[in-house]
Design brief:
With about 475 residues, the protein is α/β, with parallel strands linked by helices. The chain has 4 domains: about 5-140, Response regulator (Rossmann fold, 3-Layer(aba) Sandwich); about 140-230, 2-Layer Sandwich (Beta-Lactamase), CATH 3.30.450; about 235-305; about 315-460, Heat Shock Protein 90 (2-Layer Sandwich). It is built from 13 helices and 18 strands. The chain has helices at about 15-25, 40-45, 60-70, 90-100, 110-140, 160-165, 170, 180-185, 235-275, 280-310, 315-330, 355-370, 430-440, and strands spanning about 5-10, 30-35, 50-55, 80-85, 100-105, 145-150, 155-160, 190, 200, 210-220, 225-230, 315, 335-340, 350, 380-385, 390-395, 445-450, 455-460. The strands form 4 sheets. Strands 7-6-11-10-9-8 form a 6-stranded antiparallel beta sheet, sandwiched between helices. It has a 5-stranded parallel beta sheet with strand order 2-1-3-4-5, sandwiched between helices. The protein has a 5-stranded mixed beta sheet with strand order 13-15-16-18-17, with helices on one face. The chain is elongated, with a radius of gyration of 36 Å.
C-alpha cells in the first residue's frame, strides 16, 4: 500500500492508536485527527487518497462532516469510508445520502481494512484516469494540428482526426496500439530527418515534398509522449526558393555586371580617343540591363514555383559522375573516387545536373571558407549504399564544435568564425543543400574526422529508375 495517503477522524484515542498501528504496518502515509473541527484545512493540505470517518462523534456527527467534505471542490472526489458500530440499514442509508462510499464495522479486522482501503483507492484512481483521458482526448480532438500519443513502446495509443487524415494507416487500424510509429512512418513514405528532427515526406512526380516540425511533450503516463506536428511545408519551400536565389544570384549577376563595368571603363578611355561611339556604349549597357532584368524575373519564378521547375528532373548516374569529375578538374586540388559498381550503373537521382553542381560547390565553398589558409584538401567518395548513391565529402578544415553541428543546416547561421576570422556569406549554403537532399527523400550526416582534423559530410541520394 505504498504511495497511499490516509486521513482518519475518530474521537476515541484507542481507535486512533489502533488505526495508526495498522497504517504503519501498511507502510503508507497517514494523519489521525481527534475531532473534525479543522478537517477541511487539514485534508486540503494533506491531500489524502481516502478519508476514514467515525459516525458518532460528540462535536459533529460523521454525516455532517461528510457533507462538508463533499461540498469542498478540492475534496469532493476523495473516497470516504465510514467507521461505525451501528450496522443497521438506516445508518447506511443516511451515510450514502451524505456522500459515503464504503462502510466498515467496528471492531474492524486488519486484513479487511487493508483490502477495503486498497480497493477503493484503486477504483478511484482508475476513475480519475478515465476522466483525465476523456478530457485529454476531447482536448486533442479539438486541435487542428495532427497529434498522436505514443506509449512507452513507441506504439500509437491515440490519434486525432488530423493525424488519421495524414497517416492513412491510422484510418484503417482497428487497434491503434498495434501501430508502431516508426513502422507507420516507413510504411507511408515518411522519414525523420536526423539533423532537424522534422518529419518529411519526400517529393514525388505528383506531389511536392512535405515538412512537419515535431514538438514532443510528456504523455499522460510514465514513458509516454505526445507528438504535435506542425505543417511547415509552405515556409520550408519558400525558404528553399529564397535561399536558392540568394545562393546563385551573385554568380548569375557577375556577367551583366562585368559588361557594365567594362563598358564604363571603355567610355572613360575610348570615348576621348573617338574609337567607339556613345551609341555603341549605350547598346552594351542596354543589353546588360536586359540580362539583369531577366535574372530578376527568374528570381521571382524560383520564389513562386521552384518545385514545378524541379519536379521530375533526373540526373543519370553517368551524368552525375561526369559533373563531379568536371568540378574536380576545375578545382585542381579536389580528388574524386568512384566505386566500380557505379561506373556504368543505370538509373539516376531526382536532381538536375545544375542541382548536383550547386550542392557540391556549396559544400566545397564551406570547406574553403573555414580552412585556415582557405586551401583545404578535399576528397569526394561516391559509392552505392542502401539503394542510394552516397556522396561523401571529407576535408581537413579543422572540424566543428560537436555541440553545434546540428546548426549547420539552419538558415542564416555561421558556425565557426573563431579560428578563421570573420567569414563573409549569408549562412545559407548548407541550408540549400539540406533542402535539396531531404526534398527527394535523401539524408545528410555531418561529423568530425579523427582528432577533429576536418569534417565529413555524407549525403544519401535515393536511386531512381
Amino acid at each position: 500500500m505504498e504511495n497511499i495517503r490516509i486521513l482518519a477522524v475518530d474521537d476515541e484515542e484507542l481507535v486512533r492508536a489502533s488505526l495508526a498501528a495498522c497504517f504503519a504496518a501498511f507502510e503508507c502515509e497517514y494523519l489521525c485527527l481527534e475531532g473534525p473541527e479543522d478537517i477541511i484545512n487539514e485534508a486540503v493540505a494533506f491531500k489524502p487518497d481516502v478519508i476514514l470517518l467515525d459516525v458518532m462523534m460528540p462535536q459533529e456527527d460523521g454525516y455532517s462532516v461528510c457533507r462538508r467534505v463533499r461540498s469542498n471542490s478540492d475534496l469532493q472526489g476523495v473516497p470516504i469510508i465510514f467507521l461505525t458500530a451501528l450496522a443497521n440499514n438506516k445508518t447506511k442509508m443516511e451515510a450514502i445520502a451524505a456522500g459515503a462510499d464504503e462502510f466498515l464495522n467496528k471492531p474492524f479486522n486488519l486484513a479487511e481494512l487493508k483490502i477495503r482501503i486498497s480497493n477503493i483507492v484503486r477504483l478511484n484512481r482508475l476513475r480519475k484516469t478515465a476522466e483525465h483521458r476523456r478530457l485529454f482526448e476531447d482536448l486533442i480532438v479539438s486541435i487542428d494540428n495532427p497529434v498522436l500519443v505514443l506509449n512507452d513502446r513507441g506504439s500509437v495509443e491515440f490519434a486525432n482526426t488530423s493525424a488519421r487524415s495524414l497517416f492513412g494507416g491510422l484510418r484503417t487500424a482497428n487497434d491503434l496500439s498495434a501501430c508502431h510509429f516508426d513502422t507507420l512512418l516507413a510504411g507511408e513514405g515518411f522519414r525523420v530527418d536526423a539533423l532537424s528532427g522534422q518529419i518529411i515526406k519526400p517529393e514525388t512526380s505528383k506531389n511536392i515534398a512535405q515538412f512537419f516540425d515535431v514538438k514532443r511533450l510528456p504523455g499522460p503516463q510514465k514513458g509516454w509522449e505526445i507528438l504535435k506536428l506542425t505543417d511547415v511545408t509552405e515556409q520550408s519551400l519558400a525558404a528553399r526558393a529564397a535561399s536558392m536565389v540568394l545562393s546563385t544570384l551573385s554568380h548569375k549577376l557577375r556577367t551583366p555586371l562585368n559588361v557594365l563595368n567594362m563598358t564604363l571603363d571603355l567610355i572613360d578611355e575610348d570615348s576621348k580617343a573617338g574609337r567607339v561611339s556613345e551609341n555603341d556604349f549605350v547598346g552594351y549597357c542596354k543589353r546588360a540591363c536586359a540580362d539583369l532584368n531577366d535574372l530578376v524575373l527568374k528570381a521571382n519564378f524560383f520564389e513562386s514555383g521552384w518545385h514545378e521547375y524541379s519536379t521530375g528532373l533526373n540526373c543519370s548516374t553517368a551524368s552525375m559522375l561526369k559533373t563531379l569529375e568536371n568540378i574536380a578538374i576545375e578545382r585542381g586540388t579536389l580528388k574524386v573516387e568512384v566505386s566500380k559498381e557505379l561506373r556504368g550503373a543505370a538509373g539516376g537521382v531526382q536532381l538536375s545536373q545544375d542541382d548536383i553542381a550547386m550542392i557540391v560547390t556549396e559544400c566545397l565553398r564551406n570547406s574553403i571558407k573555414f580552412h585556415r589558409d582557405h586551401t583545404p584538401d578535399v576528397l569526394i567518395k561516391v559509392y552505392a549504399e542502401s539503394k542510394c548513391i552516397c556522396v561523401e565529402i571529407t576535408d581537413d578544415s579543422g572540424g566543428i564544435d560537436p555541440s553545434r553541428i546540428y546548426l549547420l543546416c539552419k538558415p542564416f547561421v555561421q558556425i565557426e568564425k573563431t579560428h578563421t576570422g570573420q567569414v563573409e556569406g549569408w549562412g545559407l549554403g548548407l541550408f540549400v543543400v539540406w533542402h535539396h537532399v531531404t526534398a527527394i527523400g535523401g539524408s545528410i550526416e555531418i561529423e568530425n574526422t579523427a582528432n577533429r582534423k576536418g569534417t565529413k559530410l555524407k549525403m544519401l541520394l535515393p536511386l531512381r529508375d
